[in-house]
Target: Purple acid phosphatase
Amino acid sequence: MAMGLGLGSVYLLLLCFVLTSCCNGGISSSYSRTNDISADMPLNSDVFALPHGFNAPQQVHITQGDHEGRGVIVSWVTPNEPGSSKVIYWAENSNVKQHAVGSFVTYKYYNYSSPYIHHCTIKNLEYNTKYFYELGTGNVTRQFWFTTPPEVGPDVPYTFGLIGDLGQTFDSNRTLTHYESNPAKGQAVLFVGDLSYADAYPLHDNNRWDSWARFVERSVAYQPWIWSAGNHEIDYLPEYGEGEPFKPYTHRYYVPYEAPGVHLRFGYSIKRASAYIIVMSSYSAYGMYTPQYKWLMNELPKVNRSETPWLIVVMHCPLYSTYLHHYMEGETMRVMYEQYFVKYKVDVVFSGHVHAYERTERISNVAYNIENGLCTPRNDEYAPVYITIGDGGNQEGLLYEMVDPQPKYSAFREPSYGHATFEIKNRTTAYYAWHRNQDGYSVEADSVWFHNLYWKSLSDSSAASL
Ligand SMILES: *[C@@H]1O[C@H](CO)[C@@H](O)[C@H](O)[C@H]1NC(C)=O
Ligand SMILES: *[C@@H]1O[C@H](CO)[C@@H](O)[C@H](O)[C@H]1NC(C)=O
Ligand SMILES: *[C@@H]1O[C@H](CO)[C@@H](O)[C@H](O)[C@H]1NC(C)=O
Ligand SMILES: *[C@@H]1O[C@H](CO)[C@@H](O)[C@H](O)[C@H]1NC(C)=O
Ligand SMILES: *[C@@H]1O[C@H](CO)[C@@H](O)[C@H](O)[C@H]1NC(C)=O
Ligand SMILES: [Fe+2]
Model:
């Protein structure tokens, strides 16, 4: 009988097999792009322009400055002399000017000497209020503004932007422009690591840390970017005497990590509106008994999903990625922590590192115990979605090589530059969309509705008990 099968039907069978196996996975976008790699913008570009005036404050950036969202860390640089570390600020509807005084640091990196880097934390701001703030003295003051988040609560809508691996190329500028012009209007950025790529230059030319901060000022002086450290923040150059990892980053980017009893520079958590955000460090010790492990084991049970329903984890290196470059680099971290992300119903894990875009299904791979052979990711409606958004546009270019055929757990992947937004509507629902740079500002190249895992589990179990 088998002999009777025509060659044609064998091909047909084969074709069916190929089609079903490839289409079990999600979508590998066939979007085609041109000029996929671009150089860093030259130092005389408009985006790097120095503000006018002697010792004028530059590189202004803000981030959340406390656990609840009533604090802001304002950071900036003065190039010529220390100047003042004072921030003058006032609410939009008030003419009472207040001030806070911070301090400055400097550092040397091989033969580079940093300018004066100021950090000033403003605390006890009113929620949901627009504030103006002013830096500098005499005729070189500069004014900016920010809006504090609404008071923490379960149904507070809030929109986060997602940007990663940004660098300072022409593509980086397109990504930032698209984020700024996105009608979804992100209110704060979750930055998934790898900021300036200064380490791509001879001796990690730290002038590129300065130029990067001038480039992004147009956004980050007005809304907080929540920082996480990537491998390009390590700046490890022991052969030139620079053996202290993260030296430029730690001097320039302060984060609110000083929770009582916690001394973990790159792991911290914040509440913002209806979200609880846990920032982890892919490049700090994370095995059993390490500070990061102890902190996280203490942190996860503390999250009160009635207060902050949305539990979001940010870490540079993805736990799931089906691109061949950096393949399985996050595996040791996954083995350590995925079980807890599943147990505590983390809604989504945002990462970068891989210079492309990918979104997984809700999956987990936690059943394996070294001898039971259960080592394949499986659909799990209560497990996180993993999103890789390392497509900011740095000078290393995009990654095209992928695991083929596309594994089932990968829902959508495409090597294009872009950014995403995560729009929380209320305690049960959020809307996520990824935007590629080649499209119009409002075009969504990938999108999905999120149903909050904690509230879903409650309604599922009450439905089951009926
Ligand atoms: C302030 O501006 C005046 C001219 O308006 C200029 O002569 C002076 O040098 C400036 N001072 C500083 C500190 O830049
Ligand atoms: C630092 O050293 C490099 C290489 O020797 C040199 O090109 C550069 O000009 C030096 N920079 C400074 C600020 O001395
Ligand atoms: C960067 O983007 C901004 C906003 O679109 C634009 O005004 C500026 O000219 C761009 N600069 C470069 C060097 O591409
Ligand atoms: C959790 O948050 C809710 C809402 O804010 C509050 O009523 C409740 O007391 C909190 N639970 C705990 C254990 O703190
Ligand atoms: C939450 O938001 C979604 C989307 O806007 C809406 O359909 C749903 O009714 C809202 N739920 C509640 C409890 O307000
Ligand atoms: Fe990276």
